[in-house]
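Example 3.2
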Amino acid sequence: MCVLLWVVLAIGVLLCPAQAIDGYSQLDQSSRAGVDLVVQQLHAHVGVHAHFLFFRSVEKSDIEAGFGARHISHHFLLKPTTCAKGTTPATVETCPFRNDRPLMDCKVCYKMFRDEIEAEPKPYVHCIQKPKLTQMMRQSRLDRCRRMRYTNGAPTLLASTQN
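Structure, written as tokens:
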């Protein structure tokens, strides 16, 4: 009976990192680009001392804006790892998650054109430790992302002229 318990425990330990890796690898390319942007900015921030990896998505939206443009909003969680800040390449296998630190709650909104993040409008990135996230911050995130969607350009693109 004791051996069976050890086997079940060992299988569980082996499956946990695989599921975490699958979380990032199962994201589509446009969502991965946003997560990579956030992680890059987070690791460049002077006040952040931990190394973070993607943990899981909370909410995603992908709105077609026409002419190959898309507006993407992605709310997700990052989890601190045991690795030093700036470790590359970092995966859950090389940098296991820590359970003694809070998750980082992140929201990113950006415009993509032909699978590249556009510089204009400037991507909106907001991350804060999950326990510190307030309802006012949630509303502010939502408002900022909504404003980005409505800067698509002039409606005169389809206007025609007669000679």
